[in-house]
């Protein structure tokens, strides 16, 4: 409570309840304090501090607190206090309204994008508002797909699309009568409204569908025709022209119906994308809400921490105040003790005087002489004088003591005041210190960032030219887009004017039609003679419809062929890119293999020379070495050789199976077996390394005793050599290898217990064995879990599988926990790699970790074995159930799988699991505990105090001295023999290593040859597909030419039809009655007919243009889908933005920043289609003709320098060429992402 409290208010504090007696500032401490008189004696004073009284109360009933320490108020002391206290809560409280507001998604408009589409039928037959008839300019620019709407009058969208579509469909598909005048017109659903009441002007489409007055019965019509005189030819020509207009409008209506159906299909495809976008938006909103909640929680925790800090400070101030009060009480008590001491001393002196006076009085008689009285009086006076002197001395001592106490008190008060001042300023100093530390850390981060930016800036000079060219290209594109926008705006204005003129013309035509309805009914008899002409026209229209349908069919087939060709082209481009990348890898590996081959030849030559030297030196060796030491030396080399071959098998098998990277995808049972085999072979390798380490540091006697085993264990190497040869020929058999390894391990375990037990020389190898087993067991655990997940996922996704989930969600209960285990495995795998690498480095430096760390490593190995047992047992338990499900003998039961998980977890990793707890959480906690133990062990391995150097003399060195002493030969020759032996051992080790490298290189060469054969087959397939694509393109061009030819033939047929109609009209005019038409009306009739026919031709041409536009749009859509299906390019390395460079007068890129800062015009479909074509051409060019790294200059320089280091310009180095290739790929990736973003802007509702 931070508000001021009135006097007399009942409050509650930590010491209890009381009444406020004082509120304000005090002299003992800065700030505002509240003085409270408590109901109980739990206070610290009587209302006064340091002699200053602020209020009056009983002793130990008064207390001073801060206003923020008040827990609650209970009214005035005159009122009755409530029974309970309202204590404020400091925790975070979320209200339902806040949660609802934060979870509620943003409001969306009630109408969907499909409802806004012109092809969407509306529920209301009422006309649309005027805004739908005249869209603003921005709508034309942002939605180029609706540009075809400008050809139709705006009033067409105001009517009911449902009725118009149904009417048009019936006019197309229904039976066609000989003449529209022979049958009564259809009855409308609603009475017609006058044209003045409709917001949009009437259109030709509405004129056809508009209801007309009911026609008269045929009998009455015939009677009227019989009584009336025959109409003139002028009215007949007008009626004929109107019939043609109606037919043209009917065809136009059919065309518009097809347009609306096409747009409806487009709208449905667009609406199908909306749920995905809505789901993505909901997920992002959920993440945003969770982040806001976490932020609110963190803020409230920070406020709570600040409040606690303030409370602690206030409690410190109260403690200081209590200390001062206690010091005052102590000083008062000391003064009282001193006064009592002085009084006691005076009383003791008086008592002594009285005792002496009584003793003198008893010793004297009643009758004393005057001389004796004078003596007693003198004694009394002497004692009195002594007492006075003593009293003076005591007074002086008291004065000095008082002065000293006052001085001490003043010094203490000064010190207290200084300490209070220090306490007042220490918070500011602490905050300043923390702020300074934060600023220092930020400054260091900024320095590092500036260093990175400086490095980027130093390497960005060569990119300026490319950026300049790109900016120039962007500027040209922007200018082209601006010109296109201006053209579109001009076209839109022209379209608006045409629409207005068309509306006015349509109004006039409607008035004429209403005035001529009566004349049309009078000319029914004459119209019968025109039925034959109408039937001919209907036949022509039917032929045209058949032609349009045929063209549409061919266009659909062409689209399908184009889509298939584009798909094949995309596949070919992807395969070509993979082939070229593989070619680059092959070239680099070929160069490396060439260098390795040269090195291997040199090493073979050295090994050959060393063998010759060994053959020459062996006869000079003493016979005692051949008899005793030769087998021991061969045994030592045998163990080293066996360990190296085991490691070679592990490395090659891991490389062939892609371990451990392949564990992140789908895993089969064969891969689990490979992981198990690696662990067994690694155990053999570790055991051989331990034997070699023991023989390297043991005594001579043990060395010779172990050497006697060589003849027995030497044949075991042949089995391992056989598997290495099988691996070289790619005929490796896992089961036989595991069987042989188990047999060898049984023999070696017996050797370890018999001959190698009790030695500490293999400490480093034992430590490395524990960590290697830890690393490989992690891979085996991940492989078993991934295999189970892969099997379950494939079975669940099968449509024929019967699922019995038992009310559970399989993703939440099974698949997601398995994926979490695999994610935790990655962290543990990284930790095991670090530990293993650290042990390898220590062993290479002839150092090991101290023995007290071995239990921790052994604990890690044992702990991960429990996880392996869980993974293997889980896979073995569920495989029979999954096999039954696959054979359709039983349904998939999720409860059975979860029961297996709980049962296996309780018997392996989670033996102390609580009832009702999730076994997945227990397993995850086990992995987390494993990672924590490894994290604790890693810093210990890096500390120098836990590392010891391995020192000692090899037994063969000691044995050399003994042999020398026994033979007493020349010391120089003995030294030479020892040196040769050492060189021989080194050469043998080198030879073994070279043999291993040769074997690895041979296996890799075989693999590369197989991959080359596969790549050649893929290249042939790509060539065939390129030929097919070229044929499809040629076929497409032929179809386009055929379409243009058909269009020309259609125009010619239209002209011929116009001529025939003109001829028919002339003949009919000659065959008419006696009435001769006026000469001035003939041009009018011809002009009307010609105008109507021209309108019909324009409608047909508009149909062809629409088909072409739709074809280009579909091509653009196919191209967009093809670009989206392209594989994602690798993410570029995130770097800090390059600092702005100083503009120079020598560069022509000063306007780049201005061009980038200019606002981008809204994308249109035309601009996106153009940019898509350019981007597609660049991607095809990049993927089909990649640059190969040119090594000719480097090889030439090296040949001139005889194999030494050479210098090349930066642009000529292979690394720079690869970097340019990567930069080009990143630029294309950015362009694709930008194109997708702009396309999504158009696609968004």
From TrEMBL:
Residues 24-66 form the CAP-Gly domain. Keywords: Cell cycle, Cell division, Coiled coil, Cytoplasm, Cytoskeleton, Dynein, Microtubule, Mitosis. Residues 109-123 have a biased composition (Low complexity). The keyword Cell cycle applies. Residues 384-568, 970-1056 form a coiled coil. It comes from Favolaschia claudopus. PANTHER family: DYNACTIN 1-RELATED MICROTUBULE-BINDING, DYNACTIN SUBUNIT 1. Residues 359-369 have a biased composition (Acidic residues). This is CAP-Gly domain-containing protein. GO terms for biological process: cell division; establishment of mitotic spindle orientation; nuclear migration involved in conjugation with cellular fusion. The keyword Transferase does not apply. Belongs to the dynactin 150 kDa subunit family. Residues 124-133, 182-203 have a biased composition (Pro residues). Pfam families: CAP_GLY (PF01302), Dynactin (PF12455).
């Amino acid at each position: 409570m931070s508000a001021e409290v009135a006097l007399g208010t009942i409050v509650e504090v930590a010491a209890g309840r009381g009444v406020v007696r004082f509120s304000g500032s005090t002299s003992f401490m800065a700030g505002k304090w509240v003085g409270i008189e408590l109901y109980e004696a739990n206070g610290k004073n009587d209302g006064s501090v340091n002699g200053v009284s602020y209020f009056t109360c009983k002793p130990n009933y008064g207390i001073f607190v801060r206003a923020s320490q008040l827990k609650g108020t209970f009214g005035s002391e005159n009122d009755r206090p409530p029974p309970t206290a309202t204590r404020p809560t400091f925790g975070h409280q979320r209200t339902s309204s806040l949660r609802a507001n934060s979870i509620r998604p943003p409001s969306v408009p009630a109408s969907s994008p499909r409802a806004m589409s012109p092809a969407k039928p509306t529920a209301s037959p009422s006309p649309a508002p005027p805004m739908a008839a005249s869209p603003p300019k921005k709508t034309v620019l942002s939605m180029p797909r609706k540009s075809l709407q400008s050809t139709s009058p705006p009033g067409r969208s105001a009517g009911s699309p449902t009725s118009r579509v149904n009417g048009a469909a019936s006019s197309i598909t229904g039976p066609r009568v000989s003449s529209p005048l022979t049958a009564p017109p259809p009855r409308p659903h609603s009475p017609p409204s006058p044209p003045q009441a409709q917001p949009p002007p009437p259109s030709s489409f509405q004129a056809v569908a508009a209801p007309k007055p009911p026609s008269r019965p045929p009998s009455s019509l015939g009677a009227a025709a019989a009584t009336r005189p025959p109409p003139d030819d002028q009215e007949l020509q007008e009626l004929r022209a109107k019939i043609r207009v109606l037919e043209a409008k009917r065809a136009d209506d059919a065309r518009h119906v097809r347009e609306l159906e096409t747009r409806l299909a487009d709208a449905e495809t667009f609406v199908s994308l909306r749920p995905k976008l809505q789901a993505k938006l909901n997920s992002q909103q959920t993440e945003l809400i969770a982040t806001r909640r976490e932020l609110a929680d963190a803020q409230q925790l920070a406020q709570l921490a600040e409040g606690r800090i303030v409370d602690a400070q206030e409690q410190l101030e109260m403690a200081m105040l209590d200390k001062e009060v206690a010091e005052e009480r102590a000083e008062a008590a000391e003064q009282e003790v001193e006064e009592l001491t002085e009084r006691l001393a005076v009383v003791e002196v008086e008592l002594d005087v009285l005792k002496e006076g009584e003793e003198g009085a008893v010793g004297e008689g009643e009758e004393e002489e005057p001389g004796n009285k004078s003596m007693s009086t003198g004694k009394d006076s002497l004692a009195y004088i002594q007492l006075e002197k003593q009293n003076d001395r005591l007074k002086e001592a008291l004065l000095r003591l008082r002065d000293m106490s006052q001085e001490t008190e003043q010094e203490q008060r000064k010190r207290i005041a200084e300490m209070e001042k220090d306490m007042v300023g220490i918070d500011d100093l602490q905050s300043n210190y923390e702020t300074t530390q934060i600023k220092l850390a930020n400054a260091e981060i900024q320095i590092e960032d500036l260093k990175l930016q400086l490095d980027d800036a130093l390497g960005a000079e060569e990119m300026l030219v490319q950026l300049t060219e790109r900016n120039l290209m962007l500027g040209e594109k922007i200018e082209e887009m601006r010109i296109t926008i201006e053209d579109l705006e001009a076209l839109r204005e022209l379209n608006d004017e045409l629409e207005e003129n068309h509306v006015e013309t349509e109004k006039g035509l409607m008035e004429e039609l209403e005035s001529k309805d009566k004349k049309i009914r009078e000319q029914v008899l004459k119209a019968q003679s025109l039925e034959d002409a109408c039937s001919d026209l209907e036949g022509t229209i039917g032929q045209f419809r058949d032609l349009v349908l045929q063209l549409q069919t061919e266009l659909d087939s062409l689209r399908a062929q184009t889509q298939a060709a584009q798909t094949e082209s995309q596949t070919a481009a992807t395969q070509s890119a993979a082939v070229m990348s593989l070619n680059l890898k092959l070239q680099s590996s070929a160069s490396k293999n060439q260098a390795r081959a040269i090195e291997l030849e040199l090493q073979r030559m050295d090994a050959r020379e060393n063998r010759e030297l060994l053959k020459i030196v062996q006869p000079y060796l003493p016979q005692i070495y051949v008899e005793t030491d030769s087998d021991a030396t061969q045994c030592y080399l045998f163990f080293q050789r066996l360990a190296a071959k085991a490691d070679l098998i592990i490395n090659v098998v891991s490389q062939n199976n892609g371990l451990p990277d392949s564990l992140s995808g789908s895993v089969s049972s064969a891969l689990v077996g490979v992981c198990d085999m690696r662990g067994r072979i690694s155990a053999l390798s570790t055991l051989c390394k331990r034997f070699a380490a023991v023989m390297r540091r043991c005594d001579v006697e043990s060395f010779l005793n172990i050497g006697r085993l060589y003849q027995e264990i030497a044949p075991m190497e042949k089995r391992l050599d056989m598997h290495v040869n099988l691996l070289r020929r790619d005929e490796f058999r896992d089961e036989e290898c595991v069987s042989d390894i188990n047999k060898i391990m049984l023999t070696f375990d017996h050797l370890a217990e018999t001959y190698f037990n009790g030695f500490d020389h293999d400490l480093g190898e034992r430590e490395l064995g524990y960590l290697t087993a830890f690393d490989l067991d992690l891979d085996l655990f991940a492989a078993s879990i991934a295999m189970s997940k892969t099997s379950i996922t494939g079975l669940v996704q099968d449509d024929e599988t019967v699922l019995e989930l038992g009310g559970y969600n399989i993703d939440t209960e099974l698949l997601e926990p398995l994926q979490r285990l695999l994610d935790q495995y990655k962290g543990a795998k990284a930790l095991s790699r670090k530990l293993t690498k650290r042990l390898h480095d220590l062993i290479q430096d002839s150092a090991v970790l101290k023995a007290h760390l071995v239990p921790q490593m052994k604990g890690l190995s044992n702990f991960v074995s429990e996880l392996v047992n869980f993974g293997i047992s889980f896979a073995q338990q569920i495989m029979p159930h999954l096999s039954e499900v696959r054979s359709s003998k039983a349904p998939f039961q999720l409860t059975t799988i979860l029961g297996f998980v709980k049962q296996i977890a309780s018997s392996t990793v989670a033996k102390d699991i609580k009832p009702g707890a999730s076994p997945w959480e227990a397993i995850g906690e086990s992995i987390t505990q494993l990672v924590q133990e490894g994290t604790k062990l890693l810093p210990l391995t890096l500390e120098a105090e836990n590392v010891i150097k391995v020192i000692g003399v090899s037994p063969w060195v000691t044995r050399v001295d003994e042999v020398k002493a026994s033979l007493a030969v020349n010391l120089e020759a003995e030294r030479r023999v020892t040196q040769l032996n050492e060189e021989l051992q080194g050469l043998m080790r080198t030879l073994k290593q070279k043999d291993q490298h040769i074997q690895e290189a041979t296996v890799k060469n075989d693999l590369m040859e197989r991959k080359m054969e596969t790549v050649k087959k893929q290249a042939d397939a790509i060539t065939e597909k390129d030929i097919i694509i070229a044929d499809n393109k040629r076929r497409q061009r032929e179809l386009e030419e055929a379409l243009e030819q058909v269009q020309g033939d259609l125009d010619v047929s239209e002209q011929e039809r116009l001529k025939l109609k003109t001829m028919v009209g002339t003949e009919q005019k000659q065959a008419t009655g006696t009435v001769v038409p006026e000469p001035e009306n003939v041009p009018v009739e011809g002009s009307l007919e010609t105008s109507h026919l021209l309108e019909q031709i324009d409608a047909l041409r508009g149909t062809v243009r629409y088909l072409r536009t739709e074809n280009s749009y579909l091509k653009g859509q196919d191209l967009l889908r093809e670009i989206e299906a392209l594989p994602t390019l690798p993410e570029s390395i995130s770097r800090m933005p390059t600092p702005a460079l100083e503009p120079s007068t020598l560069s022509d890129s000063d306007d780049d920043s201005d061009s980038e800062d200019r606002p981008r015009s809204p994308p249109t479909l035309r601009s996106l289609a153009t940019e898509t074509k350019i981007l597609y051409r660049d991607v095809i060019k990049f993927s089909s003709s990649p640059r190969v790294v040119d090594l000719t200059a480097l090889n030439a320089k090296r040949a001139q320098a005889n194999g030494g280091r050479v210098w090349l310009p930066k642009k000529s180095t292979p690394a720079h060429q690869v970097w340019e290739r990567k930069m080009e790929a990143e630029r294309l990736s950015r362009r694709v992402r930008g194109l997708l973003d702009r396309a999504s802007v158009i696609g968004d509702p």
